[in-house]
Amino acid sequence: MSGRSETIKPTANFKLDGPLALVEPPFSTYKTILNEALLHAHAKGITSFYRLKAELYRELRAGWPELPSHYTYTACQMACSIYEAFRKLERRGRVKADRPCSNKDAIMLDDHLFSLDLEGWMASIATPRGRVKFRLLHGQYHEKFEAMRPGQAWLVKRGRELWLTDDYIGGVSASSRP
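Below the sequence we write its predicted structure tokens.
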């Protein structure tokens, strides 16, 4: 019996309260950047984040200079992930489209684009107009998160609501046996 070790990443979900109008423009811009990166990855068969970023970063930054640079960085990460999943489904004959595309209202945020103050129940998100603060209304939160630092998060728009889903770095190591 051989065991394998895996890391469990705790996740927290928070509903945000604040100026939705200030984060509306980045959603459409991010979707455009992400779809351009997906189109490029598909056309050239790129699954490597580093290669995609090397080929597209300057062009995307020149097209949207007002957007914080890490939006472009995370869009390239997300594009590679989506394209890899698309290729896997394509090999299995389970895709309906001829190329991958994203229609979701979700933005991948890294630790440069957001910060959390769990004691004050506040989140700060970088936008083209500077950092915008949001109050965390409610969510699933555990005291064990206090010793960990936020890793990456997804800012998700559901109708007129904003949600922040956050993965924490420093997760628990667990052993599993087949």
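Residues 4-176 form one domain.
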